[in-house]
Amino acid sequence: MGETNRTAMRVQWKLHKLMWNLSGGRLGRQVVGMPVLELVTVGRRSGLEREVLLTHVDHDGSPAVIGTNAGRDTDPAWVENLRANPDARARWNGEWHDVTAVELAGGEHEAVWDAAVAANRGYVAYAEALTRPIPIMHLVARTQKP
Predict the structure, then answer these.
(1) Is 134 exposed, middle or buried (0-12, 13-18, 19+ CB in 10 A)?
(2) What are phi and psi of 89, to 5 degrees?
């Protein structure tokens, strides 16, 4: 992906985040036909809260987020943060949840990947451009068992 496209994407993300924040998460709940959540992790180096809006797919009644990093060949910071500390908070459908992130592998990873591709074919282009495996994190509410 070219730098011009990345810049345009960053501007879109910032506008989306502004709309999301001003509406308390009521506006901007979908992007390219996929539901959006707000994920709050703890920075693995800074120890500070880090917020990001992500599209997701349902997996066993809770969201799974895909770590494409907009086509960059490094894992997104939020994935690294969850690997260092899997406890986080997430807001979807207008409600906050305390979650534990579980990195999916094997058949679960493939099933969620297939669901993500069915929801947004753009994931295929990311996968073709990357040399790294694409991580998928399942955000399990702590009232559920991970």
Answers:
(1) middle
(2) -125, 150
What's the length of the chain?
Answer: 146
Per-residue pLDDT tens digits for 116-130: 999 999 899 889 989
Examine the pLDDT at 4 and tell me if it is beyond 70: no
- CA–CA separation, 112 vs 125, rounded Å? 17
Fold of 3-141: Pnp Oxidase; Chain A (2.30.110)
What is the rounded (10 degree) CA torsion for 30, 97, 136, 2? 40
Query: Quick check: 144 pLDDT over 60?
Result: no
Segments making up each domain of the chain, as ranges: 3-141
Distance CA 104, CA 136 (A): 6
- Per-residue model confidence as pLDDT tens digits over 33-66: 788 999 999 999 999 999 998 999 999 999 999 9
Predicted confidence (pLDDT) at residue 21 exceeds the cutoff of 70: no
Q: What is the DSSP string of 115-145?
A: HHHHH-THHHHHHHH-SS---EEEEEETTS-
